[in-house]
Design the sequence.
């Protein structure tokens, strides 16, 4: 080979090595967020140094006022594709985020498991029974936000009460969305000519932007209010953990021709809902006084909201500053304030761990195969097969011999069946007796608790019951699901139950409007203390159940029901 050929080969190898491989992680990540008013696009580029990134594009585009239906994913996707083409933007990897109102969000305390597959199995088992929709229609993902230290685990093993009941538990944030929601975002991306790689959650994306915008939290409780024209997200962070999150429906879509009085009334109403939401955080198990509050958004109403809220609450209220850890393109500070979610999505995707929650790639139970164990099991199975074969041959010879001698094989078969049925009946009876003994041994007075709850829950014109479950063990647990007309009824009922002595886990509720006008669905989880402060028997004697409404056919007893049925019988 000549020197010229050698030089050409070396240059070719250098070019091939420098060329971007399709199997490497893409360096361009584009986050897209769209609502009824704005399209927000943020593109970041990863650097050659691991962990280094650069914000390349921050674009905010108003959506058309007419002929723009957010519920039509195909039309929305076609419009987004046209805008990206007009911006001459090569998207690369594309990520989006689901709204808070589209997800069921809950924090769980679980044993700290190192295996992700085992943790996923435990999470799915705990969350499946609390979903407002079928488990088969759900996409569930989670992220572990806090893991107990070695000292906490050792103290918990010694049953040290000073460590608290959750000292040996891992804090896990779990989110679930419908499969239709995931398919809707896929359709938007497909209609735009894009391939969706990640689907996160808005509150966690906003949280990621907050971490890049402020200094260390120092284990403070920080509230983040993300303002949009039609909705407001209220998130509470404690020790860098998302412990509380709600989406509020507001109307801040004010035009330039709007009267000043109408504008101030809308802002006052939005501030009132935000403060009420912060008060509901006080009833959660993870409650800690809020020390700082940040308001983020690009509506132009953030300063007015901050002034109103600051006059009503003690914590310091500030407008969220732009990210300081990552430089922004020149002149894009205003757009960055409007693209809070997109910034957090793009930055979070290129983090080492990727998106904390990704509904396109949720964490699932993993079946790990051990080849050595497999060989050992195969050997055991082979020996068992040989043993069964030899035993079968021996049994057949013995049976033939017994039939020839006595002819009593029918009697023996009957005796074996009866013995087996007797053993199964004994086991069933023993199991039922143990269950009854455990139920009575706890002495929870379940019926008195049911009567007691019936006397304190509001009437059916405000709330009605969907599900009820009681569980006895080391601690008694009452779980019930209700449908209510107003979220304020939930807050009042939660505070009332806590004041009566029940240990109330954080109440999770979601918008779920039925045909009768009841707008919200909530799940209550009541833990019974060992010593209940209220004398249930005395309460039952001195307080009667609430009166039925006049339109309730059951208010007059069984006779009234019979008359009603006869009246409309054909």
Sequence:
């Amino acid at each position: 080979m000549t020197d010229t050929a050698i030089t050409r080969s070396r240059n070719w190898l250098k070019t091939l090595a420098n060329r971007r491989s399709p199997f490497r992680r893409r360096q361009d990540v584009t986050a897209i967020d769209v609502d009824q008013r704005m399209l927000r696009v943020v593109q970041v580029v990863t650097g050659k140094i691991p962990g280094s990134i650069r914000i390349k594009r921050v674009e905010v585009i108003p959506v058309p006022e007419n002929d723009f239906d957010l519920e039509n994913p195909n039309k929305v996707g076609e419009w987004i594709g046209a805008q990206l083409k007009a911006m001459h933007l090569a998207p690369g990897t594309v990520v989006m985020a689901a709204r808070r109102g589209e997800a069921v969000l809950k924090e769980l305390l679980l044993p700290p498991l190192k295996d992700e597959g085992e943790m996923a199995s435990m999470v799915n088992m705990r969350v499946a029974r609390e979903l407002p929709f079928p488990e088969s229609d759900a996409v569930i993902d989670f992220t572990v936000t806090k893991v107990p230290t070695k000292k906490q685990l050792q103290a918990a093993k010694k049953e040290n009460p000073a460590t608290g009941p959750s000292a040996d538990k891992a804090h896990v944030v779990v989110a679930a969305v419908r499969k239709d929601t995931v398919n809707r975002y896929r359709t938007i991306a497909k209609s735009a000519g894009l391939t969706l790689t990640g689907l996160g959650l808005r509150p966690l994306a906003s949280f990621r932007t907050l971490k890049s915008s402020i200094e260390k939290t120092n284990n403070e409780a920080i509230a983040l209010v993300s303002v949009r024209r039609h909705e407001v997200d209220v998130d509470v962070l404690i020790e860098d953990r998302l412990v509380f999150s709600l989406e509020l429906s507001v109307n801040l879509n004010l035009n330039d021709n709007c009267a000043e009085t109408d504008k101030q009334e809308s802002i006052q109403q939005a501030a009132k809902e935000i403060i009420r939401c912060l008060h509901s955080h006080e009833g959660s198990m993870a409650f800690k006084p809020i020390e700082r509050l940040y308001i983020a958004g690009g509506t132009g109403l953030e300063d007015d909201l901050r002034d109103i809220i600051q006059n009503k609450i003690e914590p310091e209220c500030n407008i969220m500053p732009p990210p300081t850890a990552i430089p922004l393109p020149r002149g894009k500070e205003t757009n960055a304030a409007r693209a809070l979610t997109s910034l957090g999505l793009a930055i979070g995707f290129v983090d080492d761990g990727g998106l904390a929650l990704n509904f396109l790639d949720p964490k699932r139970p993993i079946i790990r195969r051990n080849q050595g164990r497999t060989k050992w099991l195969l050997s055991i199975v082979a020996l068992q097969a040989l043993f069964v074969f030899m035993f079968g041959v021996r049994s057949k010879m013995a049976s033939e011999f017994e039939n020839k001698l006595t002819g009593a094989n029918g009697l023996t078969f009957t005796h074996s069946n009866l013995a087996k049925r007797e053993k199964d009946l004994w086991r069933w009876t023993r199991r039922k007796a143990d269950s009854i003994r455990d139920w009575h041994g706890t002495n929870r007075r379940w019926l008195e608790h049911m009567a007691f709850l019936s006397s304190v829950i509001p009437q059916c014109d405000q709330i009605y019951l969907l599900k009820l479950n009681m569980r006895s063990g080391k601690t008694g647990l009452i779980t019930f699901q209700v449908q209510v007309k107003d979220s304020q009824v939930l807050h009042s009922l939660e505070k009332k139950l806590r004041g009566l002595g029940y240990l109330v886990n954080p109440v999770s509720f979601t918008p779920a409007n039925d045909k009768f006008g009841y707008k919200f669905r909530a799940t209550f989880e009541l833990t019974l203390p060992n010593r209940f402060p209220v004398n249930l028997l005395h309460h039952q004697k001195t307080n009667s159940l609430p009166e039925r409404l006049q339109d309730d056919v059951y208010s007059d007893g069984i006779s009234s029901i019979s008359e009603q049925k006869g009246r409309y019988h054909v």
